[in-house]
Write a structure and sequence with these properties.
This protein has 354 residues and is mainly alpha-helical. Among the domains are: 33-98, no CATH class; 117-193, no CATH class. Helices cover 34% and strands 5% of the residues. The chain has 14 helices and 6 strands.
Length: 354
Amino acid sequence: MDAKSIQQKILILVIPLFLIVSIGFGLFYGYWNSASPGKTCASCHEIGTSVELLTQSAHRNLACKECHGTALSNGVHSLREKGMMIIDHIKGVANEDIKLNEEQILGVMDNCTRCHKTEQARWLSGGHSARYQDIFLNEKHNKTEQLNFDCLRCHGMFADVSIGDLVGPLNIEGPWKFKTSSEASRPVIPCLACHQIHLVGAPHISPDYSNPQNAFFARTISKPIVSIYNRHDKTHVSAGNLPVLQLWEGVRPVNVSSDPIMRNCIQCHAPNASHQAGTGDDRTPRGVHQGFSCITCHDPHSNDARQSCNKCHPAISHCKIDVKMMNTSFLNRSSSNNIHWLSCTDCHKAGRPK
């Protein structure tokens, strides 16, 4: 038998085999992406807990692929991870700690914005949309405080590398530059920094339209459910499980709001170790605003507070002045009267007027 005949026979065997494998893979891939999670994703006990939480969350009616994509759409990392899970099963190796890498988390975030476009637009307009380059190439800050491992606790919770592998040099002289250019434009505070997707919660429901007068009384009072991602433990901590901040102004305790969302905020906007008001990045309301929560004034996603005064104050105050026109940091950034801890005596030096 000549070489040509051998090649023809090989092709006759290989081509049908290739078609059978391709069709089989296509059918399996289609089934995997259309079947219920209980028959696919949840069949692996490693992510059973996540699937159980999803069934109790506001996203319970979404298929896994709506947020996570498919095995092929997630790239090489996903395929490698799934392959290693199969190998570990064969070897009998327990692997209970399955985490998304930073690139996958940003991919999930892109899927979040398909439904939460308003929240994304507000986030983009606020300070929490800062990128790695905005934070770690800030010369003014870097010359004042040296970059260190704790920076990533708030600015880069999901970074797959340490601060030394991300940017250098780690000193206050500089000049600073990124060691991995792909990281520079990534957001330091993505959605999952404050939002745990697999979290118990209920979807919004419509009121009883047949009894519109009862809509107000039947409405359940709810707030956005938030949690803080702990980089060290690589897990979310629900804001409801975080302690209320204990804060002092000298020896006087400060009344701090117990709002769970504020408890989330102060994980980054925190005072120093002595819990003294106004130290570190503490912005806890004091003075005339003592006891307020952050979101009393600030929009949770954009941080905008420009319309906040109108929520509580009439157009003209008891002083016959529009409060937005008073000499505070709300009106003028350089004002000595910080709106966060403004007191009556800051303006009324002789005491409260009659």
